[in-house]
């Protein structure tokens, strides 16, 4: 009896001493992650310098070398790292020319279509590796037509021209970058009857406003010869494999089928420089454009045409099935290895890519190296962390989309969240976009990290500015690799960066020198974005209860629904089903928060005697899976790849972040047609959204009806 009692007492006593020898709490490692002792701006600078030594577009040898570098860094961080390859359709320029014919006796002008190398450019020896300026997936062809100036090429700009009596049919439009996605500029031109499109980088928006403004390398602005290249593809992923992965030997659509899909333009287009755009503008007559259509203060007067200037636009592209390479690194979770927290950034660039995207790649490698330092100090993640470096994003989010399509079932059943960083740094000022249940987590992380531009405050302090709360954008646009995760399979996601738009975007001047002089001279903004990115990932990977709050979702849905109701209050559309579903979601969000609180309180000091991990796991699964419920298997009307009914791109602006995209598309169509049938479709879309919101509340409740 004595022995049994003694042994029992010793076991109990020992159990109480176990915490004295337990590893530090996860919060200790999280604080260590963002400390100065682990961060390294010199290492980030080195990564960026290495990645941007050569232009490295998708499918190039230089981009394969960059992939090998990323793989080597991830492997050196004790990760299980590997490359996943896909065979995808890419396009490259074979030949292009542009000639302007003006009123006699002025002779025609044939444009050189070259970006000029500046004096003492350290990258002069590799400048010939930059692709000739072009639009990826542009239609090959030769067209001749009078020029019509269409401002930013938006739907409303064509309405203005129609009101002015300007006919675009048979013309080559001249549009300027700055408001909508370039692919939609070309699509809108075709819809208006144009036969070709030229898109220029206006000094007013990218050149410092003209006048005495200097440009790179003396200032941050785009040089007169600078050209913004990019894709004009309106889909996501390989155009020949919509909805399935582009693996070797897979089924593919024909070129004719791709053109018939409506996702690639059917008229030729070219991007041109600000200088060339102004030259063409001088040849355009007709009515003077409105004040807000005009250029910089010393630009020619912008008129709308048509003509008398006539352009001859020739473009011939070559289509190639090329190999692209995603680099994947994995840190396996110690307790829940089948739950994934995924961080992603793309690697391919149109030119050198110092901002877009390799500021993000350098930050990703910084996160990887800090996580390795934590591992050496004894940290192990509760859940699996996956670091992804995508390829061919610039062509249309190709690498990430193919990976998501190939791994759809595993990702939908196991992924907690996806955290994206594309252009990590282009200047001062922190910005974030997210699905709303991550709002509070982002705010909390920003409160922990010092502002790189003001050591007396946190990033959160800078973020909120003079307001009481930071502005968090939403992920409805298709501007980066979060699209497949959110809009196709319904995974909670966030995207973050320092700075806004930057003038040398997608030009050959987006190089290491620009970053070192204007974007982030001390690379402290890179350090800061890596800290926020990694801290959000650590909390998602380590916390016992997922730090999701669906009350933020409720508030966002209520606000958006009220705005829509006010917009079409005279059309007889009933929004009560949607408001009712949102109220159900609100109750479900409160219920699951209360359940979480009850489990925590029940555990208390007796947690060593209780086994609540099944309850915790089940509750976390509901938090994780609720976002999936916002998707619909049929997708958006005529855009079926987009399954998310809350967030997806606008039909006329792929970059535009739209809430309730199906409702908005139906409203736009109904306003144009104004028929009973078109407004009935709006009501149908309201019902569709109300159903998915109710499904999300059912998931959060965790009970069958």
TrEMBL record:
Give GO terms for biological process. Answer: proteolysis; regulation of meristem growth
What residues does the Peptidase M28 domain cover? 326-512
**Enzyme class, first EC level, given as a word:** hydrolase
* Gene3D superfamilies for this protein: 3.50.30.30, Transferrin receptor-like, dimerisation domain, Zn peptidases
Q: Which residues cross the membrane?
A: none
Ranges where the PA domain occurs = 144-229
EC number(s) on record? 3.4.17.21
Listed SUPFAM superfamilies: PA domain, Transferrin receptor-like dimerisation domain, Zn-dependent exopeptidases
Provide the membrane topology annotation.
Answer: Single-pass type II membrane protein
- InterPro entries according to UniProt: PA_dom_sf, PA_domain, Peptidase_M28, Peptidase_M28B, TFR-like_dimer_dom, TFR-like_dimer_dom_sf
For this UniProt entry, what is the primary localization, expressed as one broad class?
endoplasmic reticulum
Signal peptide positions on this chain = 1-15
Q: Which family does it belong to?
A: Belongs to the peptidase M28 family. M28B subfamily.
PANTHER family, alphabetized: N-ACETYLATED-ALPHA-LINKED ACIDIC DIPEPTIDASE, VACUOLAR PROTEIN SORTING-ASSOCIATED PROTEIN 70
Entry protein name:
glutamate carboxypeptidase II
